[in-house]
Amino acid sequence: MNVHELIGYFENAYKSGESEYQCLCPAHDDRQASLGLKEMPDGRILIHCFAGCGAVDVLGAVGLTLDAVNPKRIGDFKPVRKAFNPYSVLKTISNETLLVALAALELSRGKPLLENDKNRLMIAAERLREAYHLCH
Predict the structure, then answer these.
(1) Which of 13, 60, 64, 78 is 20 to 30 Å from the Cα of 128, by its Cα?
(2) Is the CB of residue 36 less than 8 Å from the CB of residue 47?
(3) DSSP 8-state code for residue 75
(4) pTM (2 decimals)?
């Protein structure tokens, strides 16, 4: 189903942009068009109620499911790798490296680490490994 077919299920629909429409939300007592519909280039249709209704509730109110607004995928697709912000990864590496250095300094002075500090050090090590795998 494309957005032009979908708008037939909603009241007071009007075009608000290229492949974008506003209409009354059927999931709540809507008096002005608070529901936005937008068709994406890949065929998905985004549904957003500015009053807070969920897409499942909006579609359910007109007798549809999420399958109606998601294109059928044909073929075997590789999972999409999660995008990450390189700056955030570098910042995490910097912070966690400082924590490891401070723990090493304390240990080199013969001071034992408290249990909470040991646990935090293990979290730092896990985050550093995760950062490596994100960039690898």
Answers:
(1) 78
(2) yes
(3) S
(4) 0.52
CA distances 111 to 45, 105, 119, Å, are 59, 9, 16
In angstroms and rounded to an integer, the radius of gyration of the C-alpha atoms of the chain is 25
Measured CA to CA, the distance from residue 47 to residue 58 in angstroms comes to: 8
DSSP annotation string for 10-50: STT-EEEETTEEEE--TTTT-SS--EEEEE-TTS-EEEEET
- Please state, as a whole number, how many other Cβ atoms lie within 10 Å of the Cβ of residue 22: 20
pLDDT of the chain, 136 residues: tens digit per residue: 788 888 899 999 999 888 899 999 999 999 899 999 998 888 888 999 999 999 999 999 999 988 888 777 666 556 666 666 778 888 888 999 999 999 999 999 999 999 999 999 999 999 898 888 777 6
At which residue do the structure tokens 């002075």 appear? 109
| Pairwise CA distance, residues 44 & 38, whole Å | 8
State how far the alpha carbon of 60 is from the alpha carbons of 14, 30, 47, in Å: 21, 16, 12
Q: Given the structure tokens 């040991």, which residue do they identify?
A: 118
Residue 81 corresponds to which tokens in the numbers above?
A: 């790798």
